[in-house]
Amino acid sequence: MKNDYQVAVVISGGGMLSAYSAGVIADLRTYLNPDVVIAGSGGSAIAAFYASGKLTDEQEKRAWTQELATDQMISPRRLGNIFDTDYLIDVIRHRIPLDIDAIQHSNTILEISALSKRTGELHYFDASRNLFDVIQASHAVPFLARPIPIHGELFGDSFLSSYVYGHIRRVLDFHRVDKVIVVNAISFSRWMLFVELAIAWLFASPRYYRALKRQMKNLRRDYRDFVTKDYHNNQVFFIEPSRPTGITSMTVDGNKLWRAFGIGKQDAHHLQKQIKNFLSNK
């Protein structure tokens, strides 16, 4: 499905909660080729596969029931490296290969977000960068995984990257798209923003703290805008879990992950008529 106007898909983070998002994308990819895809954190690899146009049903099932469903991926016993992002990159490099060339030649603009550990600024990286490094950095949850260097600067995950609301603002204001489909697997929490900011106040530089504080203020504003104003019938369409998915951000049980994937796919399929109507009404 291609329109004569610009469409973006925004995908939330959430660690293994992204199994739900992957299920949604499994349905969307059958009929929607967006102009822009933006994601951060746990949604970044999903966004990259979506932009490649090369994802298959078999790859999806193997990813969520086998390759990612292992304590090689996440294990609380590995203090300081609970989330093994090296293992994730091995999966998408070799076991379920991400086609970088297809992404770079795609008509879909891919952007993945990650936070600079030096400045506290959120960066959006496109397919011209080393996507494996960018995806790994976007998954690098503080204290659970090591930050990743990109051109000599360390980057990691942040709630600025996981939450969708700043990404929605970006596709509307920077990319100037007409319609946004939002795949959101996580609930917004002001408390978690406070915790991340408090940690920055204790351990980061004043520059980092000020930048993070400013961006979090903007994120709270964007959250208020996109959940309280009547965007749903105009520019923004949210796809969120219709029922509990039964997983957490650290679940590695393949049966549970595949069930959450199925809920996402069912939700998107049930909304397919509404989504197509939303996209066709400029």
Fill in the keyword field for this structure.
single chain, 282 residues, alpha/beta, 8 strands, 13% strand
Number of DSSP strand runs: 8
Helix content bin: 40-55%
Which structural class do the helices and strands define? alpha/beta
- Using only C-alpha atoms, the radius of gyration works out to 18 Å
Unreliable stretches covering 5 or more consecutive residues = none
Give the mean pLDDT: 95
Order of helices and strands: EHEHHHHEEHEEHHEHHEHH
Largest sheet: 8 strands, mixed
Straight-line distance between termini: 15 Å
> How many separate helices?
12
What is the 3D shape? globular
Strand content: 5-15%
Structure commentary:
By secondary structure, the protein is α/β, with parallel strands linked by helices. Helix content is 46%, strand content 13%. It has twelve helices and eight strands. Strands 1, 2, 3, 4, 5, 6, 7 and 8 form an eight-stranded mixed sheet that branches. Strand 1, helix 1 (18-28) and strand 2 (36-40) form a beta-alpha-beta unit. The protein starts with 6 loop residues before the first strand and ends with a helix. 45% of the residues are buried. The mean pLDDT is 95.
